[in-house]
User: What shape does this take?
Amino acid sequence: MAATRFLALASRRLSLHGAKFLTKQGVLLLLFGLAIFASFRYETFLTPLNVMNIMRQNSMLALVALGMTIVILSGGIDLSVGALVALGGVVAAMLAGQGSFVAIIGGITSATLFGLVNGLLVSRARIQPFVVTLFTASAARGLALSITEEKSIAVSETASGLVWLGRGFIGPAQSRLYK
Assistant: This one.
């Protein structure tokens, strides 16, 4: 009788630990499961070339997510991040004719100025971050659409450094992986 009760309690504890693990790590398990499925379904999925391509394509998203993690952990929220990235890209593309350095500095500066406005409105004017960043996101997105007249911008050939950086290659390490 005692052994049966012990097994029942142990089984319940194990199922509770399993449920807690799934609620905390369920998305990660799903990602691993999807990667395993894709590796069986597509023979080129786990090749170094494809893995590097996936990492290159998601590197900017990872940098933005890292910054947003810090914001969220500190108890804040910023809804304007995507729009500021878009505005910075538009400004950089438009300044590309003046060289890569000017384009990169211009893109960073435009996003930084909007970030400064966010910070001042939240800290000095005491407006809620949700409202401020929602407003800033709308303003930045509207400005980017207005500047481009809702058309694509061709990056000048004189900004070869900007094009090179946009393709995601930094340093010689990646070129050695492909050989």
The chain has two domains: 1-46, 57-178.
